[in-house]
UniProtKB/TrEMBL annotation:
It comes from Aromatoleum petrolei. Keywords: Signal. This is Uncharacterized protein. Pfam families: Gcw_chp. Residues 1-23 form the signal peptide. InterPro entries: CHP02001.
Length: 245
């Protein structure tokens, strides 16, 4: 797997952290029974390997995330076998108890060979209060994930991080993905998820229940090539194992 760009991103974070005692760099590796993003399967229901890095310095943060995936290969002409996300932003407090977070996210699919291309850039803003967080992401690239004329797409989500004690965390989530352009009525959808995890000194197993109302006629790009016509947004239970170091 060609991970040169990820290696550079991780190295960049390490250089930033070096010599800055107040800075923090966290790396992680993970395996999941299925890679889901915004409720949709990115790995056609197959397991995926993932890695990431997060650098923070005060309110500033930068990060990189990589995962194996399959959906681009399911589209005729598509040739990307992994995804690389680069992101960064600034988080702080507006007033006591009310936080904010603004930043960017760039999805990169090296050599994806799709027309239009799958690479996508989003800007986002979020507000948090207590354990709850409301976030809005807006596409600023020409298209959203290879969907033609979808450059005005957006995603709104509401979630919470509930500390259950003894290392257990419960994360409920609800979101809505709006796809602009001629495919809006077919491609837009809502998603819900509930994730339970347990931290064993950096080793974090998790289980997620995920469902969407995505239309199967639109979200089954592999039907013509693989014969698998299952909806990529069908309900699923996803198991994960992450190690932070």
């Amino acid at each position: 797997m060609k991970l040169r760009t990820l290696a550079r991103a991780l190295g960049f974070c390490a250089v930033l952290a070096a010599g800055q005692a107040h800075a923090d760099l966290v790396l992680n590796v993970a395996a999941v029974s299925e890679y889901r993003a915004r409720g949709l399967s990115q790995s056609r229901f197959n397991p995926a390997l993932q890695a990431g890095a997060d650098y923070t310095n005060g309110g500033l943060y930068l990060g990189a995330f990589a995962s194996t995936m399959q959906w681009i290969e399911d589209i005729p002409g598509g040739d990307a076998v992994y995804e690389l996300d680069l992101y960064g932003g600034y988080a702080g407090e507006l007033t006591e108890g009310i936080g904010y977070d603004v930043g960017f996210l760039r999805y990169i699919f090296p050599n994806n060979n799709l027309h239009p291309g799958a690479d996508t850039t989003e800007l986002y803003a979020a507000l948090s209060y207590g354990v709850a967080k409301l976030k809005f992401s807006r596409t600023v690239s020409k298209n959203f994930l290879a969907i033609p004329d979808s450059g005005e797409s957006w995603y709104a989500e509401l979630g919470a991080t509930l500390d259950l004690g003894d290392g257990y965390t419960l994360v409920p989530h609800v979101g809505y993905q709006y796809i602009s352009g001629p495919f809006s009525s077919d491609a837009s959808y809502a998603d819900v998820a509930l994730t339970l995890s347990k931290d064993f000194d950096g080793l974090v197993p998790s289980i997620s229940l995920i469902a969407t109302d995505a239309q199967r006629d639109f979200y089954n790009p592999g039907a013509g090539m693989t014969g698998d016509s299952r909806n990529l947004g069908r309900a699923a239970v996803v198991l994960g194992l992450k190690y932070n170091f």
